[in-house]
Amino acid sequence: MIAETRTVTSTSRTSATTEDITIRETTTSRLVFRPMLVVNDRQPDAAVKGTFVYQRKGATQSWEDVPLPPLSSLKKDEAVKLELKSEELLRLFNNLSTLYELFRTQGISRGESKFIKANATIQALAGMSDDELTAVIAGHQMIGAEALLRLIQWATKADNFSVLFDRLQQLGSHGLINLNSALGVAILKRALKDWHDNRLNADESFWQNTLENQTFVLEQLFQVPVVIVKAKAYVGGKSILNEGGHVADFLVQNKITSAAALVEIKTPATPLLGKQYRNGVYNTSSDLTGSVMQVLSYRDSLAQERTNLLKSGSIDTEAFHPMCVVIIGHVRRELSDTLKKKAFELYRQQLRDVQIITYDEMYERTRRLVRVLEQGLR
After folding, report:
1. Which domain, by its residues, includes 88?
2. Is 378 within the bounds of a domain?
3. H or E element: which one contains 346?
4. List of long-range contacts for 91-96, beta carbons under 8 Å, 24+ apart
């Protein structure tokens, strides 16, 4: 029987060992063939060599090699005979054929590699043309989608990366671009689902963790490429007694110029407006004005203590004139009429140094990005 799983361990750049092939076995003894894969420059197809070994069960019930006298010790008219039955020879032949095929397709990789014998269905799929594969999947779309998901889950495991990268290199640039776009759309859609399921969530720590893990959503707020330098970033402000201190929800920077920006977050449930002041005129909520003052205070602290923060290694960015962003509230949920929308817009448009954006506006930018990417995949 051909081994379903085989481990190959390199011993040099041109050789590797693998498991013994059991040819014959009883409860106390067995005959094995110990193969070795080799790079044969003179005859490339001759890629396997090996030794027949007799083994017996030792005191520890593990198999131990039985030393055999060297052939050079044979006297005149003496001989050594090793007979293999037909089924034993077939077993050896099938396993050796597998090793030759493995060497032909994989060569000798550094370190230890594990190979699993594919069944006939997987082998057939691997050998199909693009048109043949498309025809099969089109007739079994649900099964095809599940199989693709299973393969992607397999590919995310760290011990598969070497094999995965080797195969991805064989894809053309167009195929890689399409694959990257498809995965990007899937990630963005997952973020949109998270938003839909949690749009009433009033837990600020939840949104802190969510945006930290979904940095691509946060990046939609800026017109330039940015990267998060630190979440919950200390930006100065401690007293001489080492008390207090300002901690911004996110410190980000321009990838090109290293210019800093500060992001303060509340939640989608945080109110944008307060009570009606007079007929048709609404106050902004204390949460909104407080958030604006808070992020401005962070910016002032960062500007004043930038030199000390750089020396301490707390930040590695340029605080020229940090942009300030407040993420708060949910327009569609709260601003139900024109007068409320007008009050909110009048307030945020007159702010010079702080950009206010609501959660539904932020995720709407992500939704529009999904549409653009999906059109490119059609």
Report:
1. 5-70+78-116
2. no
3. helix 338-349
4. 91/1, 91/21, 91/23, 92/21, 92/23, 92/33, 94/1, 94/2, 95/2, 95/3, 95/21, 95/33, 95/35, 96/21, 96/35, 96/48
CB atoms within 10 A of CB 91: 19
Closest alpha carbon to 35 in 55, 10, 18, 54: 18
Please tell me the pTM assigned to this model.
Answer: 0.54
- Asked if 209 and 325 sit in the same domain, the reply is yes
The SS3 call for residue 191 is: helix
**Do 256 and 353 belong together in one domain?**
yes
Q: Which residues pair with 326 in a beta bridge?
A: 264, 356
Q: What is the pLDDT of residues 57-82, one digit of tens each?
A: 877 888 999 987 777 888 888 888 88
- In this structure, the answer to whether residues 86 and 153 fall within a common structural domain is no
Tokens of 120: 């006939």
pLDDT digits (tens, 9 = 90+) for 86-140: 999 999 999 999 899 889 888 898 888 877 666 555 556 566 666 666 665 565 5
Mark whether 214 and 351 lie in a shared domain. yes
Domain shared by 61 and 183, yes or no: no
Number of H helices, E strands in the chain: 12, 14
Position 246 in a domain: yes
Q: How many domains does the chain have?
A: 3
User: Which tokens go with 284?
Assistant: 């902004």
Residues 39, 185: one domain? no
pLDDT category of residue 377 using cuts at 50, 70 and 90: low
- Report the chain's terminal Cα–Cα distance, integer Å: 47
Q: Is residue 311 part of a domain?
A: yes
